[in-house]
């Protein structure tokens, strides 16, 4: 088979599905994870690369750190990592990858199945944490799929019929996996909504004395990264940007509707040093506090 490996303008190579390594030349592979596994002779797994097919890793050990689209994920026993075609990824250099890996070529399944299983839902999280019942169902479906795949070597069925059996077995596994991915995304959205709501309430209560993202995260019991994700999902901005916007709004209200000296306005929103308040206000409005007040009057 011709080498169709390509290199993108960003220098990241994209490797094709290795049909030649599949039993019977079918469009899937199922087998144990291993440190020697590769998609291509020139594709060191610890380097950043793309693939033009799907990978599903079901872990029985760990923890393992794996980069997908420049985000680091840590997978442990029972977790599943789903990497879709075109996503940039990189294996860690550890030998901790243990479990089962499924590789699937685009086009192996009919369009209706592709749509039903959300194969190209890039908005869904790559790392999944099934509960005990979900994990049991997924393991059973994958074990059956692997049995059918291994049975190709014994040729108990004509290849065309065996390929159909594989497609149906794969569909069962992917329907379970797609349901897990969609429900995980919904749970993450609800958690993000809750996190943002608590953050917004905390900012409304404490913005006059607390401008620190880390302090809010600590007080709410979240990591800074979790807080950043939740606020960005809800507002499209950073937690710091959200805090600063609320501080500026209050400063504008006080400048416009009270006769407080500018120094006292600054102190009221957390800036005991008038110079620091003026600098902050100018950075966010392109006006000094005095100019803003004068313009309104």
From TrEMBL:
Keywords: DNA-binding, Transcription, Transcription regulation. SMART domains: HTH_ARAC (SM00342). Gene3D superfamilies: Homeodomain-like. Residues 197-295 form the HTH araC/xylS-type domain. It comes from the Bacteria. The keyword Lipoprotein does not apply. InterPro entries: AraC-bd, Homeodomain-like_sf, HTH-like, HTH_AraC. Pfam families: AraC_binding, HTH_18. This is AraC family transcriptional regulator. It comes from Streptomyces bobili.
